[in-house]
């Protein structure tokens, strides 16, 4: 039988894992939504097909003739690098903030 401390630890760890899973899911949704932002309207279905087409193990699942070459260029050469850079810069700013909080002992 588990002690009360072990039960609290298990709940805390399981909540942390659930929180991490929810945050990763939210990040993936925002990532795909941000690929849709831009002057040229590209449907979500096409965005997902373009992303799937460019993944080495999944590219056989997508019919390449259904994707416009213009849409593919817009997503892969303009929007995707912009979104990836934004995610990297956001992670760097978060890391800098955590570092400053650690240095100044600000909880």
UniProtKB/TrEMBL annotation:
Single annotated GO MF: transmembrane transporter activity
Which SUPFAM superfamilies does this one have? ABC transporter involved in vitamin B12 uptake, BtuC
Q: Which InterPro entries match?
A: ABC_BtuC-like, ABC_transptr_permease_BtuC
Where does this one sit in the cell? Cell membrane
Q: Which GO terms describe its cellular component?
A: plasma membrane
| Organism domain of life | Archaea
A GO biological process this protein is involved in? siderophore-iron import into cell
Which membrane topology describes this protein? Multi-pass membrane protein
Alphabetized UniProt keyword annotations? Cell membrane, Membrane, Transmembrane, Transmembrane helix, Transport
Q: Which residues cross the membrane?
A: 18-39, 83-103
| Predominant location | membrane
Q: Which family does it belong to?
A: Belongs to the binding-protein-dependent transport system permease family. FecCD subfamily.
**Protein name, entry field:** Iron ABC transporter permease
